[in-house]
């Protein structure tokens, strides 16, 4: 049985316990606590999605927009359900988020998209500049930074706003037989392939940056740009860009040096 948000009722029931769960390592857990955030529990979102079919012209570089939208929407569903669980816990954010995809044996065009991370609550309701830790979406922030990077970010005077992403599924044109044969044994650029991969990456990056602008971010840290072949064959691939959007929370961005306590000599 699922709730109106698509989150199973058993999942919501699991959250109401006195013992927190976390996928943070011990070091990450302690650094997140030192940064001023208390772990509340492990939160999870899933979407099993049927990815449709769209054919590209054999000799043309082109985005396959139907597939781009499918991959994006499926990830959004998983992220949204994870955020629902975090909200149920009263969290300010989710740290250490992992966003994965796995195609299932019961269909080559059926994939499960999952999002998982540790929900956290700030020790103080407001960030140093007086604003809430909750971004302008009204939902808990999300971040895929490690516990160590999260500690550094907070102590350097920045706040995470949310994970931002961009997706582009692209069909790469085939070369004609004569052109392919003319390249045999030669060191030479293949412009049609270069242009396709360049364009696909740019589309994914541009969409990720647009999400960051909507969050009123100053920038994006920890960006990863992945090429994912999935199940579509050698001439169709997905480029996926993801990172954590951030904003400054104080004017200086220096990390305080810890005070060292030296032992007294006898």
Structure description:
There is one protein chain. Strands 1-4-3-5 form a four-stranded mixed sheet. A four-stranded antiparallel sheet has the order 2-6-8-7. The protein has a single domain (9-248), classed as Hypothetical protein apc22750. Chain B (Translation Initiation Factor IF3). It is built from six helices and eight strands. Helix 2 packs parallel to helix 4. 36% of the residues are buried. Mean pLDDT is 83; it is low at 176-181. Helix content is 30%, strand content 30%. By secondary structure, it is α+β, with helices and mostly antiparallel strands.
Topology at a glance:
Layout: H1 9-15, H2 26-34, E1 37-50, E2 62-63, H3 65-88, E3 93-103, E4 110-122, E5 141-142, H4 147-155, E6 158-171, H5 177-182, H6 191-214, E7 219-228, E8 236-248
Spans of at least 5 consecutive residues with low confidence: 176-181
CATH superfamily (homologous) name: Hypothetical protein apc22750. Chain B
Q: Tally the helices: what do you get? A: 6
Q: How much helix, percentage-wise, in residues?
A: 25-40%
Fraction in beta strands: 25-35%
Please write the CATH class name: Alpha Beta
CATH architecture classification: 2-Layer Sandwich
Separation of termini?
68 Å
InterPro entries: UPF0145_dom_sf (IPR035439), UPF0145_YbjQ-like (IPR002765)
Family: Belongs to the UPF0145 family.
Protein name: Heavy metal-binding domain-containing protein
Organism: Tsukamurella soli
Q: Brief description of this entry?
A:
This protein is α+β, with helices and mostly antiparallel strands and 266 residues long. It is 30% helix and 30% strand.
């Amino acid at each position: 049985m699922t709730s109106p948000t698509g989150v199973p009722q058993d999942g919501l029931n699991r959250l109401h316990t006195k013992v927190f769960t976390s996928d943070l390592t011990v070091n990450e857990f302690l650094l997140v606590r030192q940064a001023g955030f208390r772990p509340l529990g492990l939160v999870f979102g899933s979407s099993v999605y049927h990815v449709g079919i769209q054919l590209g012209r054999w000799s043309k570089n082109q985005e396959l927009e139907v597939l781009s939208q499918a991959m994006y929407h499926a990830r959004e569903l998983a992220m949204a359900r994870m955020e629902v669980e975090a909200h149920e816990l009263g969290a300010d954010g989710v740290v250490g988020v992992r966003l994965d995809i796995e195609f299932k044996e019961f269909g080559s065009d059926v994939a499960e998209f999952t999002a998982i991370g540790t929900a956290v609550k700030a020790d103080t309701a407001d960030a140093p500049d007086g604003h809430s830790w909750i971004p302008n979406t009204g939902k808990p922030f999300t971040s895929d930074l490690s516990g160590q990077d999260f500690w550094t970010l907070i102590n350097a005077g920045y706040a995470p706003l949310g994970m931002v992403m961009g997706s582009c599924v692209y069909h790469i044109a085939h070369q004609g037989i004569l052109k392919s044969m003319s390249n045999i044994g030669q060191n030479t650029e293949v412009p049609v392939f270069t242009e396709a991969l360049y364009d696909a990456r740019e589309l994914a990056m541009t969409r990720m940056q647009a999400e960051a602008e909507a969050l009123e971010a100053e920038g994006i840290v920890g960006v990863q740009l992945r090429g994912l072949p999935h199940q579509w064959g050698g001439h169709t691939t997905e480029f996926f860009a993801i990172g954590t959007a951030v904003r400054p929370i104080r004017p200086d961005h220096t990390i305080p040096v810890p005070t060292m306590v030296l032992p007294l000599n006898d």
